């Protein structure tokens, strides 16, 4: 079976073949684990294609077990880019795939494939849904807060208002993609409902996600964690909810003065150098001012970009992992924390409730910063007396079981290819 994956990321192996180095320090790492299990099958040939600003023409790369195609990024994939169509026709001609699996609907190059090559044997898997996320883009922030924190980047058209508008516009094309296909892969009651709303005639297939290999080894131990430390997996824009955690921190610090907050990813508050200043977002400025006004300078640390092993160590060292997003489907960061046995607190949004079944006491309404603070303090006070952690870890191990998920995915491919 020859399978073509259309992804939103360039795999690290492809980056190494292209530039001599490559490590994934962003979202999408779960696809690496899924691909690794898929290519172990003797009758499977996997080709991974995406767009890249590092190539000027359609580029074919041969990895150890995976073949890659990189399309020139060109005018970009936030708006519909008809230039991709001729590249997809060429990829289809060269690959002759039995199955085309479009991973995610957030960008438009997947739709370009369907417009150019049709929907025959095409399946789209839901990651996030930008058209739905748009509703919650700056929840917890007022328009006044955003306007009062405009930066050069905002003036140049990259404000939070523009970001939300981009989600709205991409959402229309996302809807077209779902309405154009006959098969959709999801994993939560939330994405199943939206799949049905988009296209009641499409067949919905439930397939769990496989995490990066490093997360299946190791287990959180209270005796080895940094007491009263909170970890967030990302916070680069408002949907990830860092601003609400900062509002809750004074209440946490009142109870635990030594509490600290560690945030994975680049420091969005930096604006010292010219490069930092040009990239300084209005959301970064909002966070900077919150940290300053609430006296949190010595409390909040941005770790810088982390690979899988770096993320794993942050989870294991934390006293609690918090997922404070305004909206999520099934965040892999939550699964990573659970599979390592880390105490977890999450906002009650999207498909998260499916992942927290059995641990509902650690869910809170996104706007309720007082509940968030109280639940953080409860976890700190509980120490190692948290019997739900074993149950949640067992459920996560089952949900993210590589062998089962790989078998389920292959069965979906076989069913589609026989139609």
Explain this structure:
This protein has helices at 12-19, 30-38, 83-95, 109-117, 130-133, 143-147, 152-158, 160-180, 189-198, 242-255, 274-279, 282-293, 308-317, 332-339, 352-355, 369-382, 388-399, 402-418; strands spanning 2-6, 45-52, 59-62, 66-72, 99-103, 122-125, 183-186, 203-206, 229-232, 260-263, 300-302, 320-323, 344-347, 363-364. The chain has 419 residues and is of the alpha/beta class. It folds into 2 domains: 2-128 and 182-210 and 401-418, Glycogen Phosphorylase B (Rossmann fold); 214-399, 3-Layer(aba) Sandwich (Rossmann fold), CATH 3.40.50. Strand 9, helix 10 and strand 10 (260-263) form a beta-alpha-beta unit. Helix 10 (242-255) packs across helix 16 (369-382).
Summarize the structure.
It contains 18 helices and 14 strands.
CATH level-two architecture of the largest domain: 3-Layer(aba) Sandwich
Overall pLDDT metric: 95
- Shape, principal axes of CA atoms: globular
- Order of the strands making up the biggest sheet: 3-4-2-1-5-6-7-8
């Amino acid at each position: 079976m020859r399978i073509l994956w259309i992804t939103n990321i360039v795999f690290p192996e492809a980056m190494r073949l292209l530039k001599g180095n490559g490590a994934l320090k962003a979202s999408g790492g779960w696809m690496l684990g899924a691909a690794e299990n898929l290519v172990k099958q003797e009758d499977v040939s996997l080709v991974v294609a995406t767009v890249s600003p590092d190539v000027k023409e359609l580029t074919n790369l041969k990895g150890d077990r995976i073949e890659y195609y990189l399309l020139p990024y060109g005018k970009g994939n936030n708006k519909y880019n008809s230039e991709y169509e001729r590249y997809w026709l060429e990829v289809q001609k060269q690959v002759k795939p039995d199955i085309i699996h479009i991973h995610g609907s957030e960008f438009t190059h997947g739709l370009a494939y369907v417009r150019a090559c049709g929907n025959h044997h095409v399946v789209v898997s839901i990651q996030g849904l930008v058209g739905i996320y748009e509703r919650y883009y700056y929840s917890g922030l007022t328009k006044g807060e955003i306007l009062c924190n405009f930066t050069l980047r905002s003036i140049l058209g990259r404000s939070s208002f523009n970001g939300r508008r981009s989600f709205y516009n991409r959402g229309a094309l996302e809807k077209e993609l779902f309405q154009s296909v006959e098969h959709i892969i999801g994993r939560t009651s939330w994405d199943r409902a939206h799949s049905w709303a988009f296209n009641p005639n499409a067949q919905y297939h439930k397939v769990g996600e496989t995490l990066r290999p490093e997360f299946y080894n190791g287990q959180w131990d209270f005796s080895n964690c940094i007491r009263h430390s909170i970890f967030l997996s990302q916070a680069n824009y408002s949907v990830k909810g860092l601003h609400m955690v900062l509002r809750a921190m004074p209440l946490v610090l009142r109870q635990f003065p030594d509490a600290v907050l560690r945030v994975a990813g680049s420091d969005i508050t930096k604006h010292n150098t010219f490069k930092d200043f040009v990239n300084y977002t209005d959301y970064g400025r909002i966070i900077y001012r919150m940290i300053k006004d609430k006296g949190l300078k010595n409390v909040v640390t941005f770790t810088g970009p982390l690979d899988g092993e770096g993320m794993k160590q942050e989870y294991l060292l934390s006293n609690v992992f918090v997922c404070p997003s305004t909206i999520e489907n099934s965040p892999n960061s939550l699964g990573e924390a659970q599979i390592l046995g880390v105490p977890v607190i999450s906002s009650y949004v999207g498909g998260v409730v499916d992942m927290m079944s059995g641990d509902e006491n650690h869910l809170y309404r996104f706007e309720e910063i007082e509940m968030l603070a109280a639940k953080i303090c409860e976890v700190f006070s509980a120490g190692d007396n948290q019997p739900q952690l074993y149950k949640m870890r067992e459920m996560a191990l089952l949900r993210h079981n590589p062998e089962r998920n790989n078998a389920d995915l292959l069965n979906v491919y076989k069913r589609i290819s026989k139609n």
